[in-house]
Amino acid sequence: DAGVIQSPRHEVTEMGQEVTLRCKPISGHNSLFWYRQTMMRGLELLIYFNNNVPIDDSGMPEDRFSAKMPNASFSTLKIQPSEPRDSAVYFCASSIKTGTEAFFGQGTRLTVV
Amino acid sequence: EDQVTQSPEALRLQEGESSSLNCSYTVSGLRGLFWYRQDPGKGPEFLFTLYSAGEEKEKERLKATLTKKESFLHITAPKPEDSATYLCAVRTEYGNKLVFGAGTILRVKS
Question: Could you please report the per-residue DSSP string of A25-69?
Fold first, then answer.
């Protein structure tokens, strides 16, 4: 398996623009997670899905952030409008079932100028 | 509130100099402790899962142990390729959330 695949790897956008990050989890994995990593706050969970259903979105910082999982092989994280403080590395991860280890993608480095 | 604290923040070792990284946690109902390795510009790479006090896991030069309050990642005779950030995370009884520590940056010099 190719592992968790994220796109794009790098994104530079202007403040106020919409940003969409994409993730393809490992085939057969039932849980999907979106994390954000910054120097100041480390790795923070934004939202996670079980069987395509959002379970916990308490980590989503503001209404500007939204996430969807229309099917078992695809998820998006959207920021609209983007702000400079959203600059971070965003990771997607998946696990085969609740309670097991999560496998991470290579991340998307987002820079909002 | 669930908390995970890793120490030291950074560690420099000479090649072959064994040492340990610490992960202490305060959580309500531990449902697993996870160790990850992260190289610059990459996502965290899964190493070990520990579920109960007294459990140990080994992989090459790494051995992870778990007590009721902390976990140790022992590195025996490290090599320069072991240089990375090592992250510890816990899963609690409340859902599937992984709470990560800030990590330990390990540098091994030849």
Answer: PPTT--EEEEEEEETTTEEEEEEEEETTEEEE-TT--STTEEEEE
